[in-house]
Design a protein that fits this description.
Layout: E1 4-7, H1 12-33, H2 35-56, E2 60-63, E3 67-70, E4 73-76, E5 80-87, H3 88-95, E6 104-106, E7 113-119, E8 128-133, H4 136-144
Parallel strand pairs: 6-8
Antiparallel strand pairs: 1-2, 2-3, 3-4, 5-7, 7-8
Helix pairs in contact: 1-2
């Protein structure tokens, strides 16, 4: 059985955009209201963005010999069926038009791939999970018990 661990951190470009937004807010407020007011507004915006990025990007995907954990959910591996690595248009459709409304999703729009895992537990309302990932082949291999080399 394979193991896998990934943190779904937000990309550096988001941090750069957030820094530019905080600087812009500082200037917009500081020019008419003073530097203290600008620093307060900029500081509050920075703290809010930091908290949001850390929470959103703090989602983890972990596979061990017992469980699959994705975001806030976990399921025993005995309840996992077929596993499919998705990239490109297949990944976009899995989160969009081809998605079952009952499916459990761990979606991160900045990640290029995904893995769809069939759920075989008759008591689980989700027919499958779709999990965003930077490494769909590695995650699929860990779930199916095969090994895939690092690239």
């Amino acid at each position: 059985m394979g193991t896998y661990r990934e943190s779904l951190r937000v990309p550096v470009s988001w941090w750069i955009i957030a820094a530019a937004a905080v600087a812009t807010l500082f200037v917009i407020v500081a020019v008419p209201a003073g530097e203290i007011a600008g620093a307060v507004v900029g500081g509050l915006a920075a703290v809010l963005l930091l908290a949001m990025f850390l929470r959103y990007g703090g989602a983890r995907v972990e596979v061990d010999e017992r469980q699959l954990r994705a975001g806030r959910a976990a399921i025993d591996r005995q309840h996992l069926g077929t596993v499919e690595a998705l990239t490109g248009e297949d990944a976009r459709r899995a989160f969009g038009r081809d998605c079952d409304p009952k499916a459990y999703l761990v979606l991160r729009s900045y990640l290029p791939g995904a893995v769809r895992v069939q759920i075989t537990d008759p008591g689980d309302p989700a027919p499958y999970w779709v999990i965003a990932t930077r490494h769909p082949d590695r995650l699929a291999a860990a779930l199916s018990g095969h090994s895939v080399g690092r690239s």
